[in-house]
Each structure stands twice: as structure tokens, then as C-alpha cells.
Amino acid sequence: MAKDTSSSKSTGGAAPLYGMGVLGGLVYYIDTSSSFLDGLWGIALAIFWPAVLVYEGLAAFGA
Known about the structure:
Elements: H1 15-32, H2 36-60
Helix pairs in contact: 1-2
């Protein structure tokens, strides 16, 4: 039987950081919502705000 020498370790990357950002966004947006629809919109914003931040940052640099 041959020993497997390939390495498949994963360091986790940015997933925990993204998760903390989503959790923080959820807390902020739901806490500041004044209606049910504001709360739903806050959930969507909490999930997508990192992507919007990167997009706007790149747009500011002209990329």
C-alpha cells in the first residue's frame, strides 16, 4: 500500500472573517431597523455588504 504524500490542508482563508462581518452586519442592521421590511433588507445588506465594499473600493481606484 502506497503512502499518500499529497497535501490537502486548508488554512480556512477568509471564511471566518467574512462570517464575523456578516454576523456584525446582522446585529447592526436588525438593531437599527424600524419595520419588518427594514429587517429583511438588513439581512440582505449584511450578507452582501463585503462584496459591495470591495466593488466600491475598486471603483474608487479606477479598476
